[in-house]
Automatic annotation (TrEMBL):
This is FAM161 centrosomal protein B. Residues 1-19 form the signal peptide. The lineage of its organism: Eukaryota, Metazoa, Chordata, Craniata, Vertebrata. Belongs to the FAM161 family. Pfam families: FAM161A_B (PF10595).
């Protein structure tokens, strides 16, 4: 009994200690005392357990110490939770309620599960870290080797670039010079004079010898000998005969190779019985008799169905019934007899008459305006016509005017000809006035002779 009593006291002390632990969360100053008391209680409990009888099957929990009657009679909310101090062994026993605590086995299993989950996560993280580290090490172990610089990066030196530009510029200038020289037209007085003389000479020759040219033409129109050959007709007949034979052979080949549009080889008539054939002969025997009194006339011409169709359409359109439109007849409402309506109608009539008078006055004054507009438009047309004529003349002058280089060459040629003319006159010992005078006298003589001949 003493051992059980001591155990109950220890349980009450533990319960009081737990209650004080829950209630003293706000009292930090008594934490040291509570730890000392808990250590003393733990040492005392171990000593009591060593002195008790060694029944191994006896439960050590504090729940068995209380009876069911005490649990039913007492309520947990009736017992306050004051902070209790350890009592001496001589104090009387006071019954109390034990609060069950969870076994450490369930706590150990929950802790193991959490540790297992944490261990799996840590293993995966370790694997990922090792894999990343191995990849980094493999990447670091790779050797770097720089590729050579491509050839298109290098540029030539400055003087080489300038030389290339100079060569390109010279080629371009040479091409432009050649183009200008090719478009330039030659100029010379001598060639024009020679061409004129040659044309006059050809005209005189053509007028003097017309018979010879006609004879030459007649000689050129002779029929060739090949046309008069006797073998030509035979050759033509032979070619025509070969052509007809070739056409016949081709038609024969096409006829043999042609196929009917409907294959009649697979179409077989159903075999008829003898009775069917006999009745058919009896019923249709009159058709075999050729001595008919009626002989129908067959029209061999095929009608033009397209033309017949359109003629029928035109006839149908001509014969179709045209409904007459409904004719609206005026009617008189009783509301029109009202004075207000009559007044409005009279006002409308007066306004209409005034508008007509105004239109008549405008019509009388219109011809004057029309004449002014007509003269204005005519003047505008004349001005535009003159302006267009001036533009055309200007464009004609611009188009007929020679190029600048032609003018320069012509001027240079004229000056050169005048210089040569003066030099020749000086070499001969003549003056320009003397030559001009003689030329004028010769021109006058030629004019007089032409007048006499006329």
């Amino acid at each position: 009994m003493e051992g059980r009593r001591s155990l109950l006291e220890l349980g009450l002390l533990c319960q009081a200690a737990l209650g004080s632990e829950l209630s003293s969360s706000q009292e930090d100053e008594d934490l040291g005392d509570f730890l000392q008391e808990a250590a003393a209680l733990r040492a005392r409990l171990c000593a009591v357990l060593s002195h008790t009888s060694g029944n191994k099957r006896q439960s050590c929990s504090l729940i068995d110490l209380t009876s069911d009657s005490t649990w039913d009679q007492q309520k947990p909310h009736l017992f306050p939770k004051p902070r209790l101090r350890p009592k001496s062994a001589s104090s009387p026993w006071i019954p109390s309620i034990t609060i069950p605590q969870p076994f450490k086995m369930t706590l150990r299993e929950a802790h193991k599960k959490s540790q297992l989950m944490k261990s799996n996560m840590f293993l995966e993280l370790d694997k990922l870290r090792d894999k990343r580290q191995s990849q980094d090490e493999a990447e670091c172990q790779k050797q770097f080797r720089a590729q050579p610089v491509p050839a298109h990066v290098f540029l030539p030196l400055y003087h080489e670039i300038m030389e290339q530009n100079e060569v390109r510029r010279q080629i371009a200038t040479q091409k432009r010079k050649e183009l200008l020289l090719s478009t330039q037209r030659p100029f010379s007085f001598l060639e024009k004079e020679e061409k004129k003389k040659e044309a006059i000479r050809q005209k005189f020759l053509a007028a003097a010898t017309p018979k010879e040219s006609s004879k030459l033409k007649k000689v050129n129109r002779k029929v060739p000998r090949s046309t008069n050959d006797t073998l030509l007709g035979d050759k033509l007949k032979e070619a025509e005969l070969y052509r007809e034979i070739r056409i016949q052979m081709r038609a024969k080949d096409l006829l043999e190779s042609s196929v009917a549009p409907i294959d009649t080889s697979n179409c077989r008539r159903d075999p008829q019985s003898r009775t069917a054939t006999k009745t058919k002969q009896e019923r249709l025997g009159f058709l075999q008799d050729r001595s008919f009194s009626f002989k129908p006339r067959i029209n061999p011409t095929v009608p033009d169905f397209e033309e017949l169709y359109w003629e029928f359409q035109r006839e149908a359109v001509r014969r179709q019934e045209i409904k007459e439109a409904t004719q609206i007849k005026p009617f008189k409402l009783r509301t029109s007899n009202l004075r207000c309506r009559q007044r409005e109608a009279n006002e409308k009539c007066i306004l209409q008459m005034q508008q007509e008078k105004g239109n008549l006055l405008l019509g009388r004054g219109e011809p004057v305006l029309d004449m002014d507009i007509f003269h204005f438009r005519q003047n505008m047309r004349e001005r535009t016509r003159e302006y267009r004529k001036e533009l055309e003349e200007m464009q004609l002058r611009v188009s007929n005017r020679p190029y600048l280089f032609e003018q320069v060459t012509k001027h240079d040629a004229r000056r050169g000809a005048e210089r040569r003319y003066r030099n020749t006159l000086q070499q001969v010992g003549l003056s320009e006035e003397f030559v001009r005078k003689k030329g004028k006298d010769a021109a006058d003589l030629l004019e007089e002779e032409s007048d006499i001949h006329r």
